[in-house]
Request: fold
Amino acid sequence: MLLEEILLANTFFVHEYRDCLKKLDHQPKKQVAIFTCMDTRLVEFLEPALGIKRGDAKVIKNAGNRIREDCDDVIRSLAAAVYLLGVKEILVIGHLDCGMSRVNQDVLTERMIQYGIPREEIDKIDLVSWIGGFSDTEENIVDAVRKIKQHPLIPKTIPIHGLLFCPDDGKIEVVVNGYEQL
Reply:
């Protein structure tokens, strides 16, 4: 069982690392918030590629680093990071080969039906839009930067950068330079 594996790994971790772990402050040392995708290829890869260590940044993840009009959880988290945790810059990081850039409505519908979701519930929504699918990764990054910048509760003085990350080699490309947008 996965839960048993996790608990065993945690017992080992706590025992093995207890002497070298130090308590960190809630505020990120580098005063940065990162909004990125939940893709597993980014785990233990994205932060080192950015020079980010434990305690340096606030990291917010969702499927496809997508900000939907009807859901502002990302904005809420970024506002908390700015106003409560001292964040001074925001990085929106999309990545190449994102699974959300090729969501197939028919496949998604079929899988939901296999899990017992009633067809009439599925038909009530535009699944691709609801799940956060998109077709152009760079456009998605620009869109997220724009939505964050335009939100009335995000200060106009915060640089919001848009970056494109390669999950194969760790290379970063600047899509939006937030300093130029101020």
The domain at 24-176 is CATH 3.40.1050.10 (Beta-carbonic Anhydrase; Chain A). The chain has a mean pLDDT of 95. Strands lie at 32-37, 57-62, 89-95, 160-165, 172-176. The chain has one domain: 24-176.
